[in-house]
Design a protein that fits this description.
Layout lengths: L3 H22 L4 E6 L3 E6 L4 H7 L18 E6 L6 H4 L4 H6 L1 E3 L9 E4 L2 H4 L2 E12 L4 E10 L10 E5 L6 E5 L9 E7 L5 H8 L6 E8 L11 E7 L3 H13 L6 E7 L8 H10 L3 E7 L11 E2 L2 H8 L6 E7 L1 H13 L7 E5 L1
Parallel strand pairs: 1-5, 12-13, 12-16, 13-14, 14-15, 16-17
Antiparallel strand pairs: 1-2, 3-4, 3-5, 6-7, 6-11, 7-10, 8-9, 8-11
The protein binds flavin-adenine dinucleotide (FAD) and FE2/S2 (inorganic) cluster (FES).
Length: 357
Amino acid sequence: MIPILVMNLILVVIAILLVIAERCLVSYGECKILINKEKILTVQGGNTLLNYFADNKIFIPSACGGKATCGYCKIEVLSGGGNILPTEEVFIPRKEKLKGIRLACQVKVKNDIEVLIDENLLAAKEYNVTVLQIQDFTHDIKYILLRLDEPQKIEFKAGQYVQFKVPETDEFRAYSIASSPLQNGQLELIVRFVPGGLCSTYIHEVLDVNDKIILTGPFGDFYLREDSMRDIVCIGGGCGMAPIRSILLYLKEKGMNRRATYFFGARRSRDLFFTEELFQLEKEFPNFKYIPALSEPKPEDNWHGETGLITQVVERFLNSNGNTEAYLCGPPPMIDASIKILTQKGVKEFHIYYDKF
Ligand SMILES: Cc1cc2nc3c(=O)[nH]c(=O)nc-3n(C[C@H](O)[C@H](O)[C@H](O)COP(=O)(O)OP(=O)(O)OC[C@H]3O[C@@H](n4cnc5c(N)ncnc54)[C@H](O)[C@@H]3O)c2cc1C
Ligand code: FES
């Protein structure tokens, strides 16, 4: 009997040979990609829609860099896209399947193809930026200040994100903008180090002041709903601070005309940042409250604030009168638990907005 390891090795070799054979032997010739019934890209088939879009400066969100793990690169394929792949199934519910929604990173162009791309995505651009400042915020989070060189301004909504191109690769990663949209000649990001992670390691270990970087964007449905006057509750953890800070700075610049409470969860006091700035905001605007909480405080933290999981603190403090909207950003378990508590407290699910990462 052939051991499983050898079998797996043989299968991997066959898969690699098939890919090489396809690249060398199969030519799809010239194919046309018709976008939104007006723009035509003429390409030599064989690559993915996502790559052809990027080659033509059409920037579709692709937080995982085309690995089919983020599900952000959704577009509508009207014809010519072939069958949906197993890698797409998990991201595309039945309703979207019927509409022809696909992952642009998984659709290979083998013939003429017609697609619809959301007009908001077509507004995303490429930005050349320079690193002005890098600062250690916590043991694993860095703050980065960037100047926009070309174009010199970016229009975005408070809460949205940009994609950072890892130099000398075709890989992009998503980072929420931590600064206000009204400060549109500079961007602030906060990046947590993920051990072994391509982009976060680059940012933490290689990126330096004066480096030139490429960003694309802005992207994302997580942004402040400005047409509402509901009370706001924000819940964040880790780098989930970034888009919520952008929202709060924007509200501040607009006069903080809505009641807002920000619950921020961390393990230890060393994991807190922007603390002074947020307490200062509380002093300036009595209708804003900042409630940081530590889940694992040690005596040396000398912590006199709230303790417990941030969701427990929300449960203790939040009084919703049914006229509240919520902005959540942080790790998936924190978001899922927060949604449960918020809905129990009477916040309507369609008034809860979140970004999980
Ligand atoms: C909309 C959006 C906004 C984001 N905003 C921010 C932000 O403001 N600040 C920020 O630091 N990050 C943010 N992220 C996460 C960021 O895009 C990257 O995923 C993260 O920096 C890791 O990328 P990497 O290239 O270093 O790791 P990769 O090379 O992509 O991954 C290396 C390994 O780490 C694992 N991994 C990836 N991400 C995480 C994680 N977060 N925690 C634990 N393990 C992980 C992967 O599964 C893989 O095994 C955001 C993500 C999204 C989708
Ligand atoms: S780029 Fe992430 S799923 Fe397509």
